Amino acid sequence: MSLQRFIQQAVSEWMSGEGPDSDIVFSSRVRLARNLRQIPFPLLSTESQAKEVIELVSKAMESEDFSSLDHFEQLTLNNLSGLEKRVLVEKHLISPHLANESRHGAVILSENESVSIMINEEDHLRIQCLYPGFQLHEAWSMANKIDDVLEQYVDYAFDERHGYLTSCPTNVGTGIRASVMMHLPALVLTQQINRILSAISQIGLVVRGIYGEGSEASGNLFQISNQITLGHSEEEIISNLYSVTKQIIEHERAARRTLLESNRIRIEDKLCRSYGILFNARVIESKEAAKRLSDLRLAIDTGMITDLNSKTINELMVLIQPGFLQMYSGKDLTPAQRDVRRAELIRERLQTVANDLNENGG
C-alpha cells in the first residue's frame, strides 16, 4: 500500500454502493472525538506535544491488538502537497480542518479506507468509520473496537461526570457523531424535503451538505447526524438516528413511487435528458454535474437506465471534484479549465462503461 494508492484510486470500498438500502443511503459514518490526558488540546499544543501524540498513537499501531483489526498505513500531512490533501478531503478520508488548519496533523488509514483516524485535528484523535449503505450499527461496532484498543495504550481525557472531554463543547460526553449520507432526489422533486428536514431538526438531529458543516447539499445528497452527545449513551444515539433514517427511507421510496405513478413519461424525460447532457457536454460546472449525476443515479435506481450502475456514479461524484480533476491532469487548472476537463472526464467514463457493455454482449 502507498500514498499514491490512496490518492489515485477514486472509489473507496465504502463508496462501492454495495450495502443495505444503498439506493438511498450512500454511506454510514461513526466518528469518535478523543483527547489525551495531560497534553494540551491541539489548539494550544506545541509542535513537540503534537509530535508526542503522533508517537503515542504510532506505538499503539504497532501492537498485535491493533494490527488484528485491519492493515493500517500512517500518513503525515506535512509530507503531502496541497493537492494531495485536497484529494483525501474529497474522498472523505480527512476533514477540511485537518487538511487546511492543522499544524502537525497525521492520518491513519485502513487498507480498504473504511477506517480513518485523524491525529491533531480539532481534537487529538478523530476515529472515523465509513461503511457503504445503511450500516450504522456496523460502523459503530468497528469504531468502538478501535477505541477500546487505543484506550489500552493512551490515557484519554475523561471526566466521571461529563464524559470524554473535547475541544468543542458540543462533542463533550460520548464524543460520538453518527451520520448517514442520503440521496433524496424524489423528496426534493415533490417539494417535501423542507418539511422533512424541519421535522428532523426538532428531534436533536442536524442536516448538512456532502462535506459536513458549512457545505451545501450538492446533488441532492444530505448528511444527517446527531447533534447531542451528552446525556445519552452511544447506543441510544445510534438507535435514534437509525430509526429516523428508516422513516426517511420510507418517505423517499413513497415519493419515488408517486413520481413514477403520477407522470412517469415526464420524469423519464427529465432524467434521460440529464444522461444525454452528461454524455455529450463539452463544458460543465460542478453544481450542474452534481445535479445531472443525481438524476442519473435516480434513473439507475428506479430501473429507467440499465446500462450503468451506481458504482459508476459514485466514482464520478468524486472524480469531478477540483482536486481529482487537477491530479489527473497533472497540473493546476483554472475554474474554466476544470469545467472543460470535468465534461471530458464524464464523457470518457460513460463511454467506457457503454463500450464494456457492448463488448460483453449487453
Automatic annotation (TrEMBL):
<feature type="binding site">
    <location>
        <begin position="27"/>
        <end position="31"/>
    </location>
    <ligand>
        <name>ATP</name>
    </ligand>
</feature>
<feature type="binding site">
    <location>
        <begin position="208"/>
        <end position="213"/>
    </location>
    <ligand>
        <name>ATP</name>
    </ligand>
</feature>
<comment type="function">
    <text>Catalyzes the specific phosphorylation of arginine residues in proteins.</text>
</comment>
<feature type="short sequence motif" description="RDXXRA motif of the pArg binding pocket involved in allosteric regulation">
    <location>
        <begin position="338"/>
        <end position="343"/>
    </location>
</feature>
<dbReference type="InterPro" id="IPR022414">
    <property type="entry name" value="ATP-guanido_PTrfase_cat"/>
</dbReference>
<protein>
    <recommendedName>
        <fullName>Protein-arginine kinase</fullName>
        <ecNumber>2.7.14.1</ecNumber>
    </recommendedName>
</protein>
<keyword id="KW-0808">Transferase</keyword>
<dbReference type="Pfam" id="PF00217">
    <property type="entry name" value="ATP-gua_Ptrans"/>
</dbReference>
<keyword id="KW-0067">ATP-binding</keyword>
<feature type="binding site">
    <location>
        <position position="126"/>
    </location>
    <ligand>
        <name>ATP</name>
    </ligand>
</feature>
<dbReference type="InterPro" id="IPR023660">
    <property type="entry name" value="Arg_Kinase"/>
</dbReference>
<dbReference type="InterPro" id="IPR022415">
    <property type="entry name" value="ATP-guanido_PTrfase_AS"/>
</dbReference>
<dbReference type="GO" id="GO:0005615">
    <property type="term" value="C:extracellular space"/>
</dbReference>
<feature type="domain" description="Phosphagen kinase C-terminal">
    <location>
        <begin position="24"/>
        <end position="255"/>
    </location>
</feature>
<keyword id="KW-0021">Allosteric enzyme</keyword>
<feature type="binding site">
    <location>
        <begin position="177"/>
        <end position="181"/>
    </location>
    <ligand>
        <name>ATP</name>
    </ligand>
</feature>
<dbReference type="GO" id="GO:0005524">
    <property type="term" value="F:ATP binding"/>
</dbReference>
<dbReference type="GO" id="GO:0046314">
    <property type="term" value="P:phosphocreatine biosynthetic process"/>
</dbReference>
<comment type="similarity">
    <text>Belongs to the ATP:guanido phosphotransferase family.</text>
</comment>
<dbReference type="InterPro" id="IPR014746">
    <property type="entry name" value="Gln_synth/guanido_kin_cat_dom"/>
</dbReference>
<dbReference type="InterPro" id="IPR000749">
    <property type="entry name" value="ATP-guanido_PTrfase"/>
</dbReference>
<dbReference type="GO" id="GO:1990424">
    <property type="term" value="F:protein arginine kinase activity"/>
</dbReference>
<keyword id="KW-0547">Nucleotide-binding</keyword>
<dbReference type="GO" id="GO:0004111">
    <property type="term" value="F:creatine kinase activity"/>
</dbReference>
<feature type="binding site">
    <location>
        <position position="92"/>
    </location>
    <ligand>
        <name>ATP</name>
    </ligand>
</feature>
<keyword id="KW-0418">Kinase</keyword>
